[in-house]
Amino acid sequence: GVATAGEVVASMLLFLYARSAPTSVVPIFGIILLFGLCRAFASPAGRALPIDLSPPEVVARVVALKTVGFQGGLIVGPIAFGFAFVADESLPYLLSAIAMSAVVAIVVFVPSSDVRRLASSGARQAIHDAFEGLRFIRRSPILFGAMGLDLFAVLFGGAVALLPAIAEDRLGVGAVGLGWLRAAVGIGAGVVAVTLSIRPLQHRLGRTLLWVVALFGLGTIGLGLTRSFALAFTAIVLLSAADAVSMFIRLTLVPLATPEDMRGRVLAVENVFIGASNELGAAESGLTAAFMGLVGAVVFGGAATLVVVAVWWRLFPTLRDMDTFDEIRPTKEAIP
């Protein structure tokens, strides 16, 4: 709640900055830094909380329902913000602050008695705990394989970061068209999330994870090659649907494979690496676009994702052969 309140402050600062007819971009970096620091605390806590409040047998369904809400926001948000931007360039930041204020209000009503608390520790112990989470991930083939696969897929398949350029240079659509392209991400993922909330995946989870990441790569290649808005929209829907299946498996697998007293640490490490891959993926897409051109950058990212899947298929047989969530049990054997 406190971290999300910090995000509200950052959004309001962006709103005020946009309203002030700015002449320098320097303040943006400070505001983004504040937002990123708050998100670094809010994200792992937000992911761990629903799991801590749910019995193990319903974790998969809870993750699916949580994803439905998240993807619903991805559908409505870009469309609404596209129209809001047309009306007033500063309005999206105000809407963001209002939405996150609602999150803070909701978190206040979570019964504190239901949330498990760990004893506080000093700075040295906190640093040790952080590295302990990293060691646990490194020595667990399933966790390391699943997180690494997602990290590299996002790193190379970050074509969504180039959507403004794709919309302008390849498709010739404006802000509203760009909003619909961004909404396509939520539409594809939202359909999958609703489906998985009704009928969660049951078997062949490891192979499914690898195949859907490969489909994500193929969709990225298709997005890079097309000049049709309809085909680009379809490609984004398909690749985002594949990404949603991958995310569902990973978000369910990680807490189930992690002991309760380490869950926050492991999720924090995951959040850092996955969050970093998102930002580095956007940077990678921009750099490759500068050297290869827009089409070359997107196609290269999709092809690199396919290579990552092929390598992971051979390197992580435990992950590849994973069948059901029921066979996943938290263990501390990975920690020396």
From TrEMBL:
<keyword id="KW-1133">Transmembrane helix</keyword>
<keyword id="KW-1003">Cell membrane</keyword>
<feature type="transmembrane region" description="Helical">
    <location>
        <begin position="289"/>
        <end position="313"/>
    </location>
</feature>
<protein>
    <recommendedName>
        <fullName>Major facilitator superfamily (MFS) profile domain-containing protein</fullName>
    </recommendedName>
</protein>
<keyword id="KW-0472">Membrane</keyword>
<feature type="transmembrane region" description="Helical">
    <location>
        <begin position="142"/>
        <end position="167"/>
    </location>
</feature>
<feature type="transmembrane region" description="Helical">
    <location>
        <begin position="63"/>
        <end position="85"/>
    </location>
</feature>
<feature type="transmembrane region" description="Helical">
    <location>
        <begin position="173"/>
        <end position="196"/>
    </location>
</feature>
<dbReference type="InterPro" id="IPR036259">
    <property type="entry name" value="MFS_trans_sf"/>
</dbReference>
<dbReference type="GO" id="GO:0005886">
    <property type="term" value="C:plasma membrane"/>
</dbReference>
<dbReference type="Pfam" id="PF07690">
    <property type="entry name" value="MFS_1"/>
</dbReference>
<feature type="transmembrane region" description="Helical">
    <location>
        <begin position="21"/>
        <end position="42"/>
    </location>
</feature>
<feature type="transmembrane region" description="Helical">
    <location>
        <begin position="91"/>
        <end position="110"/>
    </location>
</feature>
<feature type="transmembrane region" description="Helical">
    <location>
        <begin position="208"/>
        <end position="225"/>
    </location>
</feature>
<dbReference type="InterPro" id="IPR011701">
    <property type="entry name" value="MFS"/>
</dbReference>
<keyword id="KW-0812">Transmembrane</keyword>
<keyword id="KW-0813">Transport</keyword>
<dbReference type="GO" id="GO:0022857">
    <property type="term" value="F:transmembrane transporter activity"/>
</dbReference>
